[in-house]
Design brief:
The complex is a heterodimer of chains A (122) and B (518). Chain A contains 4 helices and 9 strands, in the order E-E-E-H-E-E-E-E-E-H-H-E-H. Chain A is of the alpha+beta class and 122 residues long. The longest helix of chain A has 9 residues. The radius of gyration of chain A is 13 Å and the shape is globular. The two termini of chain A are 24 Å apart. Chain B is an alpha/beta fold and 518 residues long. In chain B, 32% of the residues lie in helices and 9% in strands. Classes of the chains: A alpha+beta (122), B alpha/beta (518). Chain A: The glycine cleavage system catalyzes the degradation of glycine. The H protein shuttles the methylamine group of glycine from the P protein to the T protein. Chain A: One of its GO terms (cellular component) is glycine cleavage complex.
Chain lengths: 122, 518
């Protein structure tokens, strides 16, 4: 099941692990991405707090943790090739995986249709 | 090919396929007297030097032992005239405030009066050394003392630290003083609040001083959300950093209320004074409850910057923070002698947090800034603020009918006008407008900052431009914006007439080449 935040992160839930990245819309707004700073594996991050930084030719932006949890894995491919976030934002360009401390937090996120409507309203 | 332009580095416009400026190719690749210039490594030779060195006697003993270099270092040399020409040719491809209008928002690229330069070159200021005996540099110490005194007067603050060397360095000075003041009362706090309308250096400074940074949102009208800020205040908040006027070009009119609320919970108020040029002579930040504020002499007080000279960022401090000011500072004794207070002056130095620089700060900038102040006088400085604000509003109101101005309804702007890229056609963006302005002969405005506005364009004309110059800019700016609104495809290829066409900024950032590879 895929959820979305109003900060343009997506989150895929598979069992007790969630994969997080930024949306196609977000990468389009950021422009060419030149650097991604990922969290440390093992870090505990609260929902809504800074988890990663994505830097494009225009600006550096924070990526927030969509839910509370512990970082279990980061995408090693982004270090070598940050452009993956532009070419494959919602697949190969994922940022990190994390545990799900409170499944209830997922209820506050948008589903695909909800996010689509949200973006159209911007 | 044995033409002088051996690198084969030709202006792209010579080769343009769009039919524009396509004269017959020249043998050299040059275009009349605007000369192309290869890199030093392409024109230099290893066997040439611009300096006369005595010949080495191969029989002379050396003390280098096994450390003597056995292979040539490979650095190229040029003769003196070649060196002068190399840098002069490159400088002709540069653009600066001495060449034309430079509306780079937030940077305050104003004219640097030549009187400043004349004063800074007086031998008593220019040819002295920081370690010279203080009795021999009384005039220079008096300049520092007097400039500091005027900065206190203009800001309504009791103390000033003169040594910080630029805006962000000044921010660090202020935040370190705040940290020292908290720690002196055994109250180590952890959080610094920074609104979205603040300068980007503010959160960086707080993080560098080991504080956790928390954002405070902006209101739809582009100011600090006072309710959100008050809701976040508490005993863990060390300070709030507010840029005033802010990066949306607006005066934070609730500043006093914010400052009182911060003081009520035992925090301090840092004001980013980078935009002081909009309020100098009009508003004294001390009256607004500021505890620390840096002043960019290179902005408000017209000293050269942006490649033209170093910055200088003195910090004015409130009574509460003054004891923690960094060393050294200049004092005047009863006999009228100026002297420096240093580490060894235990009684006088107070509980200073230490020092930020080896010496007293940017002497050359102090002289220029004091010259600017004294040549303007109190009435003139007031007019600096008035004209800076008038010029920015003139641009705001001259553009808002065709260009999205998100805060135009928030009242007059201060020293800079902020626009966004809404309604541009054909996938055109702020970047295309900036490149189009280069073709029109203007340095672009600040783009994509502040982040609160989509495709931000921040235009700061400064007070030193005439109405005629601003009118010319508005004509050019409107023409480029009209093309963007109409979705003019050609704009995507701009600039056409710059020495280089559109550069691969993404490639440069993703795969930077940091050394010459031949």
């Amino acid at each position: 099941m895929r959820y979305y935040t109003d900060e343009h992160e997506w989150i895929d839930v598979e069992g007790d692990i969630a994969t997080v990245g930024i949306t196609e819309y977000a990468q389009g707004q950021l422009g060419d991405i030149v650097f991604v700073e990922l969290p440390e594996v093992g870090a505990l991050i609260e929902q809504g707090k800074d988890a990663a930084v994505v830097e494009s030719v225009k600006a550096a932006s924070d990526v927030y943790a969509p839910i509370t949890g512990e970082i279990t894995e980061v995408n090693p491919a982004l270090e070598e090739d940050p452009a993956l976030v532009n070419t494959s934002p919602e697949d190969g360009g994922w940022f990190f995986k994390m545990t799900i401390a409170d499944e209830g937090e997922l209820d506050g996120l948008m589903d695909e249709d909800g996010y689509k409507a949200f973006v159209e309203g911007l | 090919m044995n033409a002088p332009n051996q690198s084969g580095w030709k202006p792209a416009m010579e080769l343009s396929e769009d039919g524009m400026h396509n004269g017959p190719a020249t043998t050299t690749g040059n275009r009349a007297l605007m000369l192309e210039e290869p890199l030093l490594f392409e024109i230099g030779r290893v066997d040439v030097t611009g300096v006369d060195l005595p010949a080495i006697d191969p029989a002379a003993p050396t003390r280098l032992g096994g450390l003597a270099r056995s292979e040539p270092i490979g650095l190229v040399g040029l003769t003196e005239p070649e060196t002068v020409r190399h840098y002069t040719r490159l400088s002709r491809q540069n653009y600066g405030i001495d060449l034309g209008f430079f509306p780079l928002g937030s940077c305050t690229m104003k004219h640097n009066p030549r009187l400043n330069e004349k004063m800074a070159r007086l031998p008593g200021f220019a040819d002295i050394h920081p370690l010279a005996p203080q009795s021999t540099v009384q005039g220079a110490l008096e300049v520092i003392h007097q400039l500091g005194g005027w900065l206190c007067t203009l800001t309504g603050m009791p103390a000033v630290a003169m040594s910080p060397k630029a805006g962000a360095h000044g921010e660090l000075c202020g935040i370190l003083a705040i940290r020292a003041a908290h720690e002196a009362r055994g109250d180590a706090r952890e959080v610094v609040l920074v609104p979205e309308s603040a300068h980007g250096t503010n959160p960086a400074t707080a993080a560098f001083a080991n504080y956790r940074v928390e954002d405070i949102p902006a209101t739809p009208e582009g100011r600090v959300d006072v309710a959100a800020l008050k809701a976040r205040l508490g005993p863990d908040v060390a300070a709030v950093m507010i840029t005033n006027p802010n990066t949306c070009g607006l005066f934070e009119k609730d500043f006093r209320e914010i400052a009182d609320a911060v003081h009520a919970v035992g925090g301090y108020v840092y004001c980013d004074g980078a935009n002081f040029n909009a309020i100098v002579g009009k508003v004294r930040p001390g009256d607004l409850g500021v505890d620390a504020m840096h002043i960019n002499l290179h902005k408000t007080f017209s000293t050269p910057h942006g490649g033209g000279g170093p910055g200088s960022g003195p910090v004015v401090l409130s009574e509460a923070l003054a004891p923690y000011a960094p060393l050294p500072f200049v004092r005047k004794d009863d006999a009228g002698t100026f002297y420096l207070v240093e580490e060894e002056d235990r009684e006088e130095r107070g509980p200073t947090f230490g020092r930020m620089t080896a010496f007293h700060g940017q002497m050359g900038m102090f002289t220029r800034a004091l010259t600017y102040m004294l040549s303007h006088g109190a009435d003139g400085l007031k007019q600096v603020a008035e004209d800076a604000v008038l010029n920015a509003n003139y641009i705001l109101r001259s553009m808002e009918d065709i260009l999205h101005a998100p805060f135009a309804a928030s009242g007059p702007c201060m020293h800079e006008a902020l626009f966004g890229d809404k309604d541009f056609g054909g996938g055109l963006s702020t970047l295309d407008v900036a490149k189009g302005l280069i073709d029109e002969g203007y340095h672009p405005m600040t783009v994509y900052f502040p982040l609160v506005v989509h495709g931000a364009m921040l235009v700061e004309p400064t007070e030193t431009e005439s109405k005629a110059a601003i009118d010319q800019f508005i004509t050019a700016f409107r023409a480029v914006v009209e093309r963007a609104l109409a979705g003019d495809e050609a704009l995507k290829q701009a600039p056409y007439y710059a020495p280089r066409r559109r550069l691969d900024e993404t490639g440069a950032a993703r795969k930077p080449k940091l050394a010459y590879e031949g």
